[in-house]
Amino acid sequence: MNLLRSADELFAIKSAFLNQHNISNGRFTVLLLLSAAVDEGEAEPPARGPAELAEMAGVTRATMTGLIDTLEKDGYVRREPDPRDRRAMLVHVTPKGEAFTNEVLPGYFRRVGTIMAPLDATEREELLRLIMKLREGIAAAGAVDLPPPSTV
């Protein structure tokens, strides 16, 4: 119950912050995924396919299409044909999307830092290790066949 309560509270804090910037959690996640290479020292943000973005974000392809549609309408991303596969599209963050992300990230990271501040480096590593173990358990639980409910 403590884990579920903590997750709900984390989501509420994140949602409240993102609402102040008029962006949904899903749309923000897409912008973060598209902006990731800049943090890794690349010259420009990577272009990614919608299917790759959906897998990285843990959402369906249909959900990702809706997120990209809205971000494109707002001018934060653009789609263009994949030069290696004419049937596929790539999604790029636009300068407007980069500027928005750069404006929002400092406040976002301050909140994350405040949340994580009570943990020292060893505890943060241990927390990550335990979360990864939980994710393994969650994946395994999704594959378990449950008996049908009784019809008594």
Automatic annotation (TrEMBL):
Q: Gene3D superfamilies, from UniProt?
A: Winged helix-like DNA-binding domain superfamily/Winged helix DNA-binding domain
* UniProt-recorded name of the protein: MarR family transcriptional regulator
Annotated keywords = DNA-binding, Transcription, Transcription regulation
Residue ranges constituting the HTH marR-type domain according to the UniProt record: 1-136
Q: Which organism is it from?
A: Actomonas aquatica
Q: Read off the InterPro entries from this record.
A: HTH_MarR-typ, MarR/SlyA-like, Tscrpt_reg_MarR-type_CS, WH-like_DNA-bd_sf, WH_DNA-bd_sf
Source species, domain of life? Bacteria
